Amino acid sequence: MEGMIEPLTKSNQFVSMLRKHCSKVHIRELDAGHAPHDEVPDKVNSLLIHWLVAWLYMILEFSGISN
Questions:
Q1: Tens of pLDDT along 16-58?
Q2: Which of 1, 22, 37, 53 has its CA 20 to 30 A from that of 11?
Q3: 15 lies in some domain
C-alpha cells in the first residue's frame, strides 16, 4: 500500500507496470504520500479490514471449515 503522491518511488509508473503484467493484483490508489497510514488512516484501515476478511474467507473456503 502506497500513496500516489509519493515523491520518491514513482508510484504512477509502478501502478502502470502492475496493471500491465499482474492482472490478478488488486490496486487501490490512495490520495496520500509516503505514509498513507498517517495521512488517511480511515481509508487505510478500511482497506486492510476488507483485505483481511477476504483473506480469511479464502482460507476458510480452502480448508473446508466454512461448510
A1: 899 999 988 888 889 999 899 999 999 999 999 999 999 999 8
A2: 53
A3: yes
Distance CA 38, CA 55 (A): 24
Cα dihedral value 2, 32, 35, 6, nearest 10: 60
Q: What is the pLDDT of residues 51-64, one digit of tens each?
A: 999 999 989 888 88
Q: Do the domain assignments include residue 4?
A: no
Cell reading at 7: 515523491
Are residues 40 and 48 in contact, defined by beta-carbon separation less than 8 angstroms? no
Q: Enter the pTM of the model.
A: 0.73
User: Domain span at residue 35?
Assistant: 11-63
Residue 3, in any domain of the structure: no
